[in-house]
Design brief:
By secondary structure, the chain is mainly β. The protein has one helix at 60-68; strands at residues 14-22, 26-33, 46-53, 73-74, 78-84, 87-88.
């Protein structure tokens, strides 16, 4: 017999985080994940750092957001969080400062 208050344990969650710091001319993006194998489940941990400089009409921050795939989002098996200078960004890949 199953207890009335029983619930299945939650599925393990895969995640990626992008922390972008900088300005229009220069930005650094720190990336980390627990799903480096891109399976949708936690597994291999990984992290990296990327540097961006203004190029033509694209600011460093715009390039970093595009590299991150846009703002924070939740897929079926993977949560992505994106932060720009400490504030969560939830917009699309075409970042425009407010």
């Amino acid at each position: 017999m199953i207890d009335d208050d029983y619930s299945d344990p939650p599925e393990p969650e895969a995640w990626s985080e992008y922390h972008i710091h900088g300005n229009d001319d220069s930005a650094t993006m720190y990336w980390s994940t627990n799903d480096d194998g891109d399976t949708g489940y936690p597994g291999e941990q990984a992290s990296d750092t990327y540097e961006f400089q203004r190029r033509g009409d694209k600011t460093a921050l715009q390039q970093a957001v595009r590299q991150a795939g846009g703002g924070s989002r939740r897929g079926i098996l993977h949560t992505v969080r994106v932060y720009i200078n400490g504030t969560e960004y939830t917009g699309d890949k075409d970042y425009r400062p407010s």
